[in-house]
Design a protein that fits this description.
Elements lengths: L1 E6 L6 H11 L2 E5 H8 L7 H8 L13 H10 L1 H29 L4 E5 L14 E6 L2 H12 L3 H9 L4 H7 L2 E4 L4 H15 L7
Parallel strand pairs: 1-3, 1-4, 2-3, 4-5
Helix pairs in contact: 1-9, 2-5, 4-5
Length: 205
């Protein structure tokens, strides 16, 4: 089973890429953000430790779950608290991903396991992935998409762009680059060609 880690800047169109791969290949797609959210639920791996850290903060719903908007506000304004949360959640996510890789590898139900994570490189997922792929979309196009699809302001987009890795850094760490500046079909064709070459060489003409 081939394990691919997919990353790229915010607004790069990673979701469309992942949906295409899920619909057209025998693969399981995992999203690091969704895993982290699950691991922060009451009764889960990280919850008790986070309760000790943030118990006095106004970040809780009446049912004991995190209020995501309030938590995001606290983390954005306090780098120490953000780093403290990351030290709890990120290793737990990575452990979960490694366990799921072993599980799926033994089941042999999929040709690919795919992980999408914003911090794929920073968290050194190259140690457990076979390859990292970079979804490249220009800052201009990403800005347009974030304004149109999510209603983000230029100020918010500027802050998000400033916190992310440079294009050069993504390219240095990733084995493949998908150019997603054109039509979705153009990006999908690139994926098909890469996978045919790497994983299905017998399908080449």
């Amino acid at each position: 089973m081939f394990f691919i880690g997919i990353t790229g800047g915010v607004g790069a169109g990673k979701s469309a890429i992942l949906n295409y791969m899920k619909e057209n290949y025998r693969c399981r797609v995992m999203l690091a953000d969704e895993i982290a959210h699950e691991l922060m639920q009451p009764g889960s791996v990280c919850y008790d430790r986070l309760l000790l850290m943030f118990g006095m903060e106004d970040v809780w719903q009446p049912d004991g779950n995190f209020d995501n908007a309030k938590l995001a506000s606290v983390l954005f304004s306090d780098s120490e608290k953000r780093e403290a949360l990351n030290r709890v959640v990120h290793p737990a996510v990575k452990m979960y991903v490694a366990e799921q890789y072993e599980y799926e590898n033994e089941r042999e139900q999929f040709d690919f396991l795919i992980l999408e994570a914003a911090l794929l490189i920073e968290e050194k997922y190259d140690a457990i992935c076979d390859e990292l792929w970079y979804i490249y979309t220009s800052e201009e196009n990403r800005r347009k998409r974030l304004k149109q699809n999510r209603g983000y302001s230029d100020e918010k987009i500027d802050r998000m762009f400033a916190s992310q890795m440079s294009e050069e850094t993504f390219r240095t760490h990733c084995a493949e680059e998908i150019d997603n500046n054109g039509t979705p079909e153009q990006a999908f064709r690139q994926i098909d060609l890469i996978l045919e070459k790497k994983c299905f060489p017998q399908a080449e003409s």
